[in-house]
Amino acid sequence: MEQGLKNKVALVTGGAQGIGRAIAQRFADMGATVGVLDIQLDRAEQAAQEIRESGGNAQAFGGNVALRETFTSAVAALEQQHGRFDVLVNNAIWVRYSPIDAITPEMLERMTATGFHSIVWGIQAATPAMERNGGGSIINIASAAGFLGIPGALVYCGVKAGALGLTRSAAVELGPRKIRVNAIAPGSVPTEGVRMHLDDTLTAKRLARTPLGRLGHVDDIAAAAAFLASDESSFMTGESMLVDGGVTHALL
Ligand SMILES: NC(=O)c1ccc[n+]([C@@H]2O[C@H](COP(=O)([O-])OP(=O)(O)OC[C@H]3O[C@@H](n4cnc5c(N)ncnc54)[C@H](O)[C@@H]3O)[C@@H](O)[C@H]2O)c1
Fold first, then answer.
1. Cα of 59 to ligand 1 centre, how many Å?
2. pTM of the entire structure?
3. Residue nearest to atom 13 of ligand 1 (CA)
4. Distance, CA 170 to ligand 1 centroid (Å)?
5. Ligand 1, from 13, 36, 91: best to mutate by most atoms within 8 Å of Cβ?
6. Which residues share a beta bridge with 37?
7. Domains plus CATH for the chain?
8. Quick one: angle between helices 105-112 and 154-174, nearest 10?
9. What is the C-alpha separation between 36 and 48, in angstroms, rounded?
């Protein structure tokens, strides 16, 4: 898959850090031109700069994924500059865990807007551009939490289960237009975003019930995204791919 994304143009949301950053790097390493979109514009610019320094093509976009215009303008800019648009990774989300009693309207709105509405707007903006060049691949970063019940994560589990349902519906509707839509469901990957929720006790518990005996690494998720973005997965759509060390299937 070394140059498996050559001549493709991709947009990765939440690309400034963590899993999104690793996906953007991997896509660029495989020959894609990558738009790194994030609400932290300075960090998105830094990520794009580092990708360029490593020999890849990348440009930064600042924007809030909760807003439809963020996607329409980024997709239009990429298509205008590079003549095509092929791959969208819906990765960004704002997350807070909370017991049910302490969920506030602001938490609910911000998590659903960034983790669910964003996928709707991303798909809507990406599909006409993908269709103009004969198809494309949309990858929604869901979570093992979309399959599980995690205490204190009511909204997160619901938003991620929603992302899985939305992936299936989009795949069926967009298949005839040669647009594939798949989801990746990562297990725990200690990124900046996750470290604030994962203390040593919880990490030890998760490790103890993970058959492969380790937490995930951002590159584990980037490798799955690279596969789903490339033509290697050209007969896959509507799929939810667990990349979780086996934890979701374990009864230990
Ligand atoms: N890390 C894990 O353990 C894990 C496990 C399962 C699923 N996931 C999923 O993977 C994805 C990435 O997770 P991560 O751990 O890298 O997260 P992270 O918090 O480290 O990074 C998220 C990125 O999204 C950006 N972002 C947040 N709100 C935004 C907004 N409104 N508009 C644009 N950008 C915004 C942030 O600035 C940040 O760069 C998320 O969808 C997360 O739910 C992560």
1. 19
2. 0.98
3. 19
4. 22
5. 91
6. 13, 61
7. 9-249 (3.40.50.720)
8. 30
9. 7
